[in-house]
Design goal:
Shape: globular
Order of helices and strands: EEEEEHEHHHEEEHHHHEEHEE
Bound molecules: (3R)-3-hydroxy-3-methyl-5-(phosphonooxy)pentanoic acid
Length: 327
């Protein structure tokens, strides 16, 4: 049996703009997704999601033969694809496996739950089959799986949760691992509104195609913000970060990926003394982040009083890891 664990992630600066080649800054947070993989008799792959109480049995042709619940196909299929991809990558025919996913990360909220599940699954299954993949291979596998689902993802979620830490990401690679002398205190507020990142990436793609000049002006400003944020973080000069977050939020509003729910929580955080606040991830709902130090308790209360849910979590430097492996 092998257990692998992946963190979740937040994007501090540059989401959406990163899809067309800008830099973005993201970091891992200590909300784990664990995947347990074990050998099972036969050639079927059984996938279980503990929190969602779903279970499905996939035959060697990829057909879902037995399952419980309407959401089984949509939820379990991407996990099966990660298992099947790993076996093909290792040039193995499908063998009997049981894969159990346990996660407290809310799905579809911009915290990288699908990337975390993919990298933990690839890591656990490859280790179980005695061919543990390198971080580079795990990232490549998870990125190709994501490309099958969404038109044109940047790969930032997969890179962040694979390698871990605070990173600056651009064009499929990590530009820099940032090791700030101190980390900003970030509060995550969840609107509770689930949405599809793909829909919002599509919206921005249409803006880029239909109004290239408008897009390019905004993207230039976003790049400038990401670079200034990277410098400020590197030297631990956090005073400027809050206003950079506010500026980034304005640009995200201009490209149409914010939402009234997000903006309610963002204003609540700012009026309770946050130094800055913005949406994080795909937008349209999902989560926002606020930076606050001595006003943190008021900011949390204000987010909750406005209908949001604060997700307690902190920075973790660790990416995906095999945490237990025994036969
Ligand atoms: O998966 P999410 O919602 O955290 O969004 C990922 C970040 C985007 O920039 C919106 C999309 C991408 O592929 O980079």
């Amino acid at each position: 049996m092998v257990i692998a664990s992946s963190p979740a992630k937040i994007i501090l600066f540059g989401e959406h703009f990163v899809v067309a080649g800008n830099s973005a800054i993201s970091m891992t947070i200590d909300l784990p997704t664990t995947v347990t993989a074990e050998i099972m008799d036969g050639k079927h792959v059984q996938i279980e999601s503990t929190e969602l109480k779903l279970r499905g049995l996939f035959n060697p042709n990829g057909g879902l033969e037995e399952f419980n619940g309407d959401a089984a196909e949509a939820t379990l299929r991407p996990i099966y694809e990660a298992v099947s991809f790993t076996m093909r990558h290792l040039r193995r025919p499908q063998s009997g496996l049981r894969v159990i996913v346990e996660s407290d990360v809310p799905i579809g909220m911009g915290l990288g739950s699908s990337a975390a599940t993919a990298v933990a699954t690839v890591s656990a299954v490859s280790r179980l089959l005695d061919h543990p993949l390198s971080k580079e291979e795990v990232f490549e596998a998870a990125y190709s799986l994501e490309r099958m689902v969404h038109g044109r993802p940047s790969g930032i979620d997969q890179a962040t949760v694979t390698y871990g830490g605070l990173i600056s990401y651009r064009n499929g690679t990590i530009e820099a691992q940032l090791t700030p002398p101190r980390h900003p205190n970030l509060i995550i507020g969840n609107t509770g509104k689930r949405r599809s990142t793909g829909d919002f990436v599509g919206k921005v793609t249409r803006l880029r195609r239909d109004e290239p000049e408008k897009y390019s002006k905004i993207a230039t400003q976003a790049q400038n913000i990401a670079e200034r944020a990277r410098n400020a973080l590197s030297i631990g000069q956090l005073d400027e970060l809050g206003s950079l977050m506010d500026d980034n939020q304005k640009l995200l509003e201009m490209i149409g990926v914010s939402s009234p729910d997000l903006e309610r929580l963002i204003s609540a955080a700012r009026s309770a003394g946050a130094q800055g606040a913005k949406l994080t991830g795909g937008g349209g709902g999902g989560c926002m982040i606020a930076m606050a130090d001595h006003t943190a308790a008021e900011v949390c209360r204000s987010i909750e009083a406005t209908g949001g849910r604060v997700l307690p979590s902190t920075f973790t430097p660790f990416g995906v890891q095999v945490i237990q492996a025994k036969r």
